[in-house]
Design a protein that fits this description.
single chain; alpha/beta; 8-stranded mixed β-barrel; 5-stranded antiparallel beta sheet; 31 helices; 58% helix; rod-shaped; binds ligand C2E; binds calcium ion
Length: 888
């Protein structure tokens, strides 16, 4: 058995199968079979009907054709029943009329035609479009044949009056409708494989059934008219009917579009309402969100009315102020701000009220309940609360105390001295600038500035260490502060320099009294690192009466006055006066020139011979630095060396002297050795001139003066060694001279260096011996070779004088300690003789030779002993060095 076309299990899909899948994919085998049967039968009915009519007279064929055409036309314009999905095709009227006038064949054609048109309109599927006319044809053929038979029977029995015709037509219409419904419903049931149900019939009966019945009634009435009056009247009625139907069609269409519009309107209104509801919900949600954000925000927030009164505050704000939230409400926000900041806050609120601004941002200090200040960054702006009727202000407040504290600390650091906590130089400058300005603007508002410098701070630092130095400075700063009047300011400018600004002075004497009080306070001993320290300060004072315009000038003049105080003996104060300016300017000029001279290498050395008193022979020289100023001429070391010390140039000068002197002596020694060799050779000859006493090679010495700065210099020993190595001089040929004061004041720090130098073989001499206070017990243990008796003793040597006794005891002491003794400043024969008689080893002085130039000194090398010189030079003026006149 070949498979039914369209069956699902068809193995090889042929053209049938493909057509089936394309057209009726939802049709199962039964439904497919049914469809084909109905369609075939329908086609057969149509074809049969057409053939049976073919034999009829032309007039009938025309009427049938017109009837079919009108039925199909009516099918294109159905009358849609309002409020229902049904429509009434008026074609039925004409189909039924054809049935009554020309029998089932004509009506079958019309029904098939009208159904074809109708299904073209209502369905897109070709299966429906084909089966609908087929079903209509079959139903009409069946029902029409039944009607004809019934009417025939009734006419035959004489019952065929007009009323009967109408009733029978109605019954027929029902059966026609039922048949169509059954045949079409069967397709659906078969497709779904469901049994047929009676409800199918009634479910759809309603309106359409009644419409069919009404159509049949109309048809029957028209048929009766036709029977009595002929085709003419019917032709007149048909257009009327058409108009009626058309009117109905358009009326219902109109109704429908009104309804559509109404529905659309209602829908829009509904949408609108839904939108409004959604908006409301969103608003509520946003309000909820705002309130939650407000409540849980970590920054302080408040809603305020326009004069700053709190309407609502969040917990963060309450926490920031240490209050309960309720305590804030209804109070002006200004209440929580410190008094100083209230004005600027009020100003901002008033600007908002006047609509000058819409908000503000301010840094304010709030008052915490515990009394502490809280720095806040506040921001205030317009705010309209969701749902609230009137706008208000929203204030946001962030605690920035930590940041401000850090800023303040940084500021403090930048303007204060970390050791003493006092204002630093920068801060002092600022304060002074304000004072200068005020003194200019307000006559009578005088100030004084004092510059303090401690006379022995460096010593403390060097001998006790920096920690002790720091501790000392802290104590000093306290004492200065304690001696000030309220309103006066003390600052540490750096190192041991302090400055005091005393304001609102009624008289200069007040400042002087203040300075005296400070000096008194500072004179009392300090206890630092277990040591009792005495100190004193030199104070320079200047006054606003000099009409200052810049703080720099004030400080400069106070500094100048301080130097004056120092220069005139330390531990005192000095008032600035304008003559000091020239002094200072002079000093500054010299300082610059000296620096230049050192750099340019234009300093020179003078060499003063040192002589063994007993033999009168030259033993060495003392190197003395000389500066010939390009404009001012020769400047004495006593003038320029203090400037060099203060300006920190001393170390470079000593280096210069060391190198220059060592090189020079090395040259002279070479020269002397050469001379001795020649003399040695001559002595061996028969001429018999006296040879050098002792016969062995004489070693000359070079004495170099050393300052306190050098002794404190950490690389001092290395610097000395270097000079020796570079010049090739033996260490024993070099003697370093330290004044007694330097030696004693720096003894502790310098002892190590002195011992090292001694180990190297370098000689050490105490210069100006007798002017200081060296304890004799100390002297025995010190690594010292020579004591150099100060020239003040030599100058006053007279037999039986106190000085003579001192000199004698120094010479005794020296010999008992194994140290050689040198007397400097020998100007007279009597001095020379006395010293020699006392047993003094060495001598130096104008009598023997003043400081000489290198060439002059060199000329002495091979010379005779001073004893044997025919005449000694008279004592020259100390400042004048003219070797030629002095030596000959
Ligand atoms: P000083 O160390 O006591 O040097 C001796 C000073 O006495 C020299 O003065 C010298 O010219 C002077 N003089 C020599 N014989 C006589 C005399 O018979 N009668 C008098 N009245 N004076 C005499 P000068 O050259 O002016 O030096 C003064 C001071 O300057 C020196 O005193 C020394 O302390 C210092 N000085 C000189 N050169 C240097 C140097 O290169 N380095 C260091 N640190 N100090 C130096
Ligand atoms: Ca000296
Ligand atoms: Ca001296």
């Amino acid at each position: 058995m070949s498979p039914t076309p369209g069956s699902a299990d068809d193995p090889a899909p042929g053209p049938w199968r493909r057509l089936h899948r394309a057209l009726m994919p939802d049709y199962n085998r039964k439904a497919t079979a049914y469809w084909w049967v109905v369609v075939c039968l329908g086609v057969a009915a149509v074809v049969g009907s057409a053939m049976s009519l073919a034999g009829e007279p032309t007039q009938v064929i025309v009427q049938v054709a017109v009837g079919v055409a009108v039925a199909m036309l009516a099918g294109i314009f159905p009358v849609r029943v309002p409020h229902s999905r049904n429509s009434y095709a008026a074609g039925e009227i004409f189909i039924f009329l054809l049935l009554l006038m020309h029998g089932p064949a004509a009506a079958t054609l019309a029904a098939a035609g009208e159904a074809a048109v109708g299904s073209m309109r209502t369905s897109k599927r070709w299966t429906s479009r084909i089966i609908s006319p087929a079903v209509a044809a079959l139903a009409m053929l069946g029902s029409g044949a039944l009607l004809q038979a019934t009417l025939g029977a009734l006419n035959a029995s004489g019952l065929g009056n007009a009323g009967v015709v109408v009733v029978v037509a109605m019954v027929f219409a029902m059966s026609y409708f039922v048949t169509i419904t059954l045949l079409l419903t069967a397709v659906l049931r078969l497709k779904r494989d469901e049994p047929f149900q009676l409800s199918d019939l009634f479910g759809v009966f309603g309106w359409v059934g009644i419409a069919y019945a009404a159509s049949a009634t109309v048809s029957a009435l028209l048929f009766l008219v036709y029977k009595q009056t002929g085709i003419g009247v019917l032709m007149g009625l048909l257009p009327l009917l058409a108009m009626l139907l058309a009117t109905l069609h358009y009326f219902f269409r109109q109704q429908e579009s009104t309804e559509v519009a109404r529905l659309a309107g209602a829908e829009a209104a509904e949408r609108e309402a839904a939108n409004a509801a959604r908006h409301m919900r969103e608003l509520e949600a946003s309000e909820r969100r705002f309130h939650s954000a407000f409540t849980h925000a970590s920054i302080g927030m408040a809603l305020l009315n326009f004069d700053g009164r709190v309407l609502q505050a969040n917990p963060a704000l309450a926490g920031l102020l240490g209050l309960q939230r309720e305590a804030l409400v209804q109070r002006p926000v200004q209440d929580f701000v410190v008094a100083e900041d209230r004005a600027k806050l009020a100003e901002q609120f008033s600007a908002i009220t006047r609509e000058v601004t819409e908000g503000f941002a301010l840094q304010l200090r709030c008052r915490h309940r515990d009394g502490s200040e809280v720095w806040v960054a506040s921001h205030c702006s317009f705010f309209s609360e969701p749902g609230a009727s009137s706008p208000c202000l929203i204030l946001q407040v962030q605690d920035i105390s930590a940041r401000r504290k850090a800023e303040q600390d940084l500021h403090h650091l930048a303007f204060h001295d970390s050791l003493t906590g006092l204002p630093n130089r920068r801060r002092f400058h600022e304060l002074l600038a304000v004072a200068v300005q005020r003194a200019q603007e307000v006559p009578g508002d005088e100030f004084a500035v004092m510059f303090l410098d401690f006379d022995r701070f460096k010593l403390i630092n060097d001998s006790l260490g920096h920690d002790a130095g720091d501790a000392f400075l802290v104590q000093v700063s306290r004492r200065i502060q304690d001696s000030l009047r309220p309103g006066d300011v003390v600052a540490r400018l750096g190192g041991d320099e302090f400055a005091v600004l005393a304001q609102r002075l009624s008289a200069e004497a007040q400042a002087v009294m203040l300075a005296e009080r400070m000096m008194e306070m500072l004179k009392r001993p300090f206890h630092v690192a277990g040591t009792e320290l005495m100190t004193s300060a030199s104070i320079g004072i200047t006054f606003s009466k000099f009409g200052y315009t810049s703080p720099e000038h004030v400080l400069r003049d106070a500094d100048t006055a301080m130097y004056k105080a120092k220069g005139s003996g330390k531990a005192r104060y000095a008032l600035f006066d304008t003559s000091l300016h020239t002094e200072v300017a002079q000093r500054l000029r010299l300082e610059g020139d000296l620096r230049h001279a050192i750099e340019a290498g234009t300093l020179t050395l003078a060499y003063q011979p040192i002589v063994a008193l007993a033999s009168g022979r030259l033993t060495g020289f003392e190197a003395l630095v000389r500066w010939k100023h390009p404009a001012d001429g020769t400047i004495a070391p006593g003038t320029f060396l203090p400037i060099a010390e203060e300006a920190g140039m001393m170390v470079r000068i000593t280096d210069f002297v060391l190198h220059c002197a060592c090189h020079q002596l090395r040259q002279w020694q070479d020269e002397l050795d050469r001379q001795q060799q020649v003399q040695g050779a001559a002595a061996a000859s028969p001429s018999g001139i006296a040879a050098t006493p002792g016969g062995a090679a004489r070693l000359l010495t070079m004495s170099v003066n050393v300052s306190g700065h050098d002794l404190a210099h950490p690389a001092f020993v290395a610097r000395v060694s270097r000079a020796l190595i570079e010049s090739g001089l033996q260490a024993c040929q070099l003697t370093l001279e330290l004044t007694e004061n330097i030696l004693m004041s720096r003894l502790e720090g310098a002892l190590g260096a002195l011992r090292e130098l001694r180990t190297l073989g370098v000689g050490l001499a105490v210069d100006d011996f007798g002017t200081g206070y060296s304890s004799l017990s100390h002297l025995a243990t010190l690594p010292i070779d020579t004591l150099k008796i100060d020239r003040s003793f030599v100058a006053r040597l007279k037999v039986g004088s106190r000085e003579a006794a001192v000199v004698r005891s120094i010479i005794l002491l020296g010999s008992s300690l194994g140290k050689s003794v040198l007397a400097e400043g020998i100007e007279t024969e009597s001095q020379f003789g006395q010293l020699n008689e006392m047993g003094c080893d060495l001598g130096q002085g104008f009598l023997l030779a003043p400081p000489l130039t290198a060439e002059q000194a060199e000329a002495l090398l091979g010379g005779a002993s001073w004893r044997e010189r025919p005449s000694r030079a008279p004592a020259p003026a100390p400042s004048e060095i003219d070797a030629q006149t002095m030596l000959h």
